[in-house]
């Protein structure tokens, strides 16, 4: 039997934090990509940023981390519920050993391969939470997207 080179599954690691606009002093949730790029602001969806592509067949996933409590929501929620095995919203859990808050997307549902024939774009919203679990209204959420592929 000959060996075929197998593509490794990918775990995307994205940092979530708060950036203060130096001009307006307004607070925004930011996403920090592995290359160090920070992505935030009211026009974030229109700006170029690294794409986050998840493959159902390769079982790719995402881990978001932060120093602050946060949650992740996906839209359209009906599509996200059909694609992921975890229910939404995803609330970050504080790590016992390092104090970081984490959310793991978990695996994509392999049954999605029956109906997912082309790329699907999902918008994700990262929202900061207060210690009480309520949304921090002083920080604008971030609304970038992820691409789901068969």
Give the biggest beta sheet.
Answer: 7 strands, mixed
Total strands: the figure is: 12
CATH topology: Immunoglobulin-like
For the residues shown, what is the average pLDDT?
90
Level-2 CATH architecture: Sandwich
How are helices and strands ordered from N to C?
EEEEEEHEEEEEE
Counted by DSSP, the helix tally is 1
Taking pLDDT < 50 over at least 5 consecutive residues as the criterion, the unreliable ranges are none
CATH C-level category: Mainly Beta
Gyration radius, in Å = 16 Å
Helix fraction by DSSP (H/I, runs of at least 4): under 10%
Question: What is the topology?
Answer:
Layout (H helix, E strand, L loop, with lengths): L10 E10 L6 E6 L5 E2 L13 E3 L5 E6 L3 E6 L1 H7 L6 E2 L1 E2 L6 E4 L15 E9 L10 E2 L4 E5 L1
Parallel strand pairs: 1-5, 2-11, 4-12
Antiparallel strand pairs: 1-2, 2-3, 5-9, 6-7, 6-10, 8-9, 10-12
Question: If you had to describe this structure to a student in words, what would you say it looks like?
Answer:
It is built from one helix and twelve strands; from the N terminus they run ββββββαββββββ. The chain has 150 residues and is mostly beta strands. It has one domain (12-149): Immunoglobulin-like (Sandwich), CATH 2.60.40. Strand 8 (93-94) and strand 9 (101-104) form a beta hairpin. The mean pLDDT is 90. The strands form two sheets. Strands 1, 2, 3, 5, 8, 9 and 11 form a seven-stranded mixed β-sheet that branches. The protein has a five-stranded mixed β-sheet with strand order 4-12-10-6-7. The chain has one helix at 77-83; strands at residues 11-20, 27-32, 38-39, 53-55, 61-66, 70-75, 90-91, 93-94, 101-104, 120-128, 139-140, 145-149.
